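Quick illustration, no need to memorize.
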Amino acid sequence: RMGYCFTRDCLLMVVADGMGGHMRGEVAAQIALQTIAGGFQGNAQPTIPEPRQFLDQALRRAHRDILRYQEVHGLPESPRTTIVAAIIQDGRAWWAHAGDARLYWLRGNEVLARTRDHSKVQNLVALGLIDASEQETHPERNKVLNCLGSPFEPTVEISAAAKLKEGDTLLLCSDGLWSGVHEAELAQALSKRPVKDAIPDLVRRAVAAQGPSADNTTALAATWEGESLSTEVLSSLDVPEGAMTTTINFGQFEEEAPASDLSEEEIERTIREIRSAIQKTGGA
């Protein structure tokens, strides 16, 4: 699941990758988006007073909401999701993550910063047992050590404020993207084309590179334009004073739903609703 919310002065972006191997990963991802977006709706007036505190509290609240879903439905284990979220306001950005969903801060062809995966492979890199270049293709790259929804309190890693320059891009993505497209390719593609053109192409390339066994591949990006304006992009200036735009579906899951997994039809319906919301706001 992915989505964004924005006021005239603040943008929230979120990517949540429900974890395979655990039941209802798609539910965990949807709950996380709804909880975080709901917090944004209540706090962005029109900016978030304390972005780092907001991100920490929002991700932890999402974790508790997932555990509550497990309790209400009597599930033998909790749904789980990795997560990455970012706030942009006042020419600065903050981000937080749990798991191996990543954020890249790009300037031209350069990666200024990238989130550190909470994974077994990242630990092997930190211990010097494998080279950093091996982590995208390592056979154990999918072993995640931190997420929302596990029985343990998640580690929420939060960045300091990043001062943005005109042309900087923030890319949020699931492991399906970064394991299929090399970091240098991501930077090059986003430095040459607008995000609305580059992101769909990068997703297609990642899926093609991984073949029939391709993992979920989701990406969301924004380029900071500074004081310049473009008529070809979705602008926060189009939002009326005090209003908010969102692509995130706020519909709640039925509390009395049976304990079986969501059907493919229900999943596809949710996806269609999100896509429809994106089209209504002029997103790509």
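The chain has a mean pLDDT of 83.
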